[in-house]
Amino acid sequence: MVKENKYIPALSFRWLTPLYDPLLKWGMREENFKRRLIERAGVQPGQHVLDLGCGTGTLTVMLKQSAPEAYITGVDGDEEVLAIAKTKAEQARVDIKWDYGLAYNLPYPDRSFDVVVSSLVIHHLTSADKVRAFQEVRRVLRPAGGFYILDFGRPFSLLTKIQGAIMKNLEEAADNFGGRILPMLKEAGFDSASEAEHMYTLFGPVWFYESIKRKR
Prior knowledge:
CATH architecture: 3-Layer(aba) Sandwich
CATH superfamily: Vaccinia Virus protein VP39
CATH class: Alpha Beta
Largest sheet: 7 strands, mixed
Order of helices and strands: HHEHEHEEHEHHHEE
Shape: globular
CATH topology: Rossmann fold
């Protein structure tokens, strides 16, 4: 019998969900990082964009505001945070499609999106589910489509090495802090995968990862 994966909320416990947005805003300078991720993704008018693990929708709304003529979709496996995301979109008066779905079992046909973005989601997945999620992203991307990730990564200074030594004890995050995201992207079939740049946060080093699906 295959053991079914248990969905883990963003802060591990549902009662902490209301604290998620304040924690990211003040502890990680969330909007600065996400604005940079949007710049790197370079979304164009008319493109179809997926926010993988959209959570409470901060990045998703920012994407639509920065590229109003693009078609933006947010997907997440937590109905509670999706409800928060929908409220944010209504308050911002932006049109976004919201779907329930898991990163490693996306509810979309092949070649549905030009761009997929993901912010602080991948470190929640087990090693096997990371690879499965990357394979799913590659499946739903159109040829020459881009996958842009903002997430924890390998240390780049003495302080971040100390943070990494602590975080490596967490099973799901160990891949990130151990520098294994790029090999996993390549294992999933991405021919081009790179660490574009890094930044520091109170919770550890974050990296911008970029992968492109082949044109053929």
